[in-house]
Amino acid sequence: MSSQNPVLAPLLAEAAVSRFLRYVRIDTQSDEDSTTYPSTSKQLDLLHLLVAECRALGLEDVSCDEYGYVTASIPPTVEHEVPVIAFFAHVDTSPSVSGAGVSAQRRRYDGGTLPLGESGHMLDPAVSPELARHVGHDLVTTDGTTLLGADDKAGIAEIMAAVEYLTSHPEIPRGRILLAFNPDEEIRRGVVHFPVETFGAFAAYTLDGGTAGFVEEETFSGAQVRLKIRGRAIHAGWAKGELVNAIKLAAAIIERLPKDRLSPETTEGREGFVHPAVIEGQASAVELRINVRDFDDGKLDEHIAYVSGLAADVAASEPRCTIVTETIVHFRNPRPALDRSPEIVEHLETAIRRIGLEPAHAVLRGGTDGSLLTAKGLPTANIFTGAQDAHSEREWVCVEDMGLAAATIVELVQVWADY
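The chain above was modelled as a monomer; its predicted structure follows.
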């Protein structure tokens, strides 16, 4: 059964964007160096709002636990047994660009470049090719001074708009549906404490993708190699023959990385990379953090070994220094687990066709909470949100695409009920 309702997506688009414009006003930036969970208390501002909104919709089992995980359930409308599915979205925004004082602006896109206030930033189809598909559409942008937060507040808004529609239309067949909203996805700790074992879902979907119609069941496997480099300190005025500069040792490691391959700026598609992401410290001691990515776990391990080898070579060149290497694996490619339950992706493809789009597949050159959820035993695919150019002041989202994402959720629960 399908609603086949031509006004469903436009209706849900307005409901989703209304919520979205409220959510982006709340600063929820996470902090990678924090030792608390959530990493920033301001994420709880949105999480607590979502608790209130879920309760206002009459959802069941609404709670926010000690880690800030907001969960809720929607009761079934059918009597036959249906596998329980869940929808996830994260509340935090990237630490890379400020998320405070977001000034979201909705406007019709007529083509060409689109200036973002007086910031000097603009949307340019030459830089963001996806814009060409949205001439004549309504876009939500920033004023160019902050990120927008569509990653992932668009996903939250789309889930909530779909849930509001489902709860007001009990004639739509569905099994039990679970919701989860979490902090700290952007710092790769989003669901590390999530209670998968007791949550009760058979399968899950993150709303954390980009272009409308895209299905993402394959992500990078990701790790970070942290190199703690200690040199030898002394007053610079009489340092000859004594000083060992940790900054220069870090630079030596970076300089040995290949210039024409194995970096984000030289790879695409299924190619992995090694990416110096953070350097902190001073002449006596430095921490260098290198992100390592690949779709193949074996190659990921090779890249980690390569970075560790570079560090060992530099350390060997200066016996008065020490370099301690620590590797943290953040997430794994969920594709093998999803292949063992193909209906998870197949049902999503069916739902996307029901909203009038042909599903397209892409490997996600990043990670989602779904990567870790899958590793923890909850196979999870990723659904588009319409968000584009994330983690930048040029971030934008198409209102029409938000409606299509919310409509996909409505159709997807019906596909599972028919299954």
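Residues 297-317 form the longest helix (21 residues).
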